[in-house]
Amino acid sequence: MAKRDYYDVLGVSKGASAEEIKKAYRSKAKELHPDRNKDNPNAESAFKEAGEAYDILKDAEKKAAYDRFGHAAFEGGTGAGARPGGGFSGQGDFASAFSDVFDDLFGDFMGGGRGGGAGQRAARGADLRYNLRISLDDAYRGLQKTINVPTSVACDTCNGSGAEGGVEPSTCPTCSGMGKVRAQQGFFTVERTCPTCSGMGQIIKNPCDSCGGQGRVQKDRSLSVNIPAGVETGTRIRLASEGEAGMRGGPPGDLYIFIEVDRHEIFEREETNLFCRVPVSVTKAALGGDIEVPTIDGGRSRVKIPEGSQSGRQMRLRGKGMPALRGGSTGDMFIELAVETPVNLTSRQKELLREFEELSEENNPESSSFFRSVKSFWDGMKS
What we know:
It comes from Roseovarius phycicola. By secondary structure, this protein is α+β, with helices and mostly antiparallel strands. The protein has helices at residues 6-10, 18-32, 43-57, 60-69, 94-99, 102-106, 136-141, 282-287, 347-358, 365-382; strands at 128-134, 143-154, 170-171, 180-185, 188-193, 202-203, 216-227, 236-239, 255-261, 267-270, 273-281, 289-294, 300-305, 314-317, 333-340.
């Protein structure tokens, strides 16, 4: 049976570009794949025919010979694998043709593309996280703090190589340093992690006794950390290369310090502003006067209470808040008054308060306004 024209097999014209030919073959390979045509007994032969056509037309030299002599250009060899004028190339079989578009059809199958690459000989160490609790006073001033971090460090015995005496690892004989091996399964080339070196690409004949060939050992490290002023809960500080040591001399990871600022017994924080709730007596709120309030820097500030101040009234002390983490600005401090009702009154104090109440019916505008509104509400309900 005469062979079909390769251009007809792929459904392209004779002047088609290399990209058009490849695209046409991808389409044909998907359409004719035996796994998708189990009920069609001719699917496999058509699939192979498309692969044979693509193997010829993808190669500029073969394509030129085919365009000039047709199928006769390859009669001196064994099918699509022969070069013009005879002689088998050794690379021109159908599996080779199909593997050229294997990744385009199915992605990175089994975790690796074509060509591969050197194995991961020196794996980077993992990043570490350290949670650090500090006081609001420390967050205001900043501090230098020493922390102990349990981590992996480079083995001193083998200098991180993992080999006894610090000898350099040798290339894995199974994968030739690629870290991956390939196996032919029908039309497919399956790529897997090398079982000998576990993907490292190198092997250690005499592992270091101290680290077991890992090139690193577990150890607590003491680090001095600079906590800048203005940090708040959630602030993350990165210490480059202070994380876990890499395997077999690989680069270390990073250390991330996450800050948590404890609650303060006097101040509440909102970004760079501070809030302080200050109780004042009824007489101080009514008559006014001066009070002293604490500030986060350990100092004192005198605040004037206006006459007739009510609970919840706020007064601002500019520049008495927290420093900004980035930039030279400083927040404010807000004083919130809490008018305190006296308790455990003596008989004389009660007598004076009753007398005061009788004389102060017009001195409570808020309560007077409220009860007028209540009376109006009740009157409206009755009508």
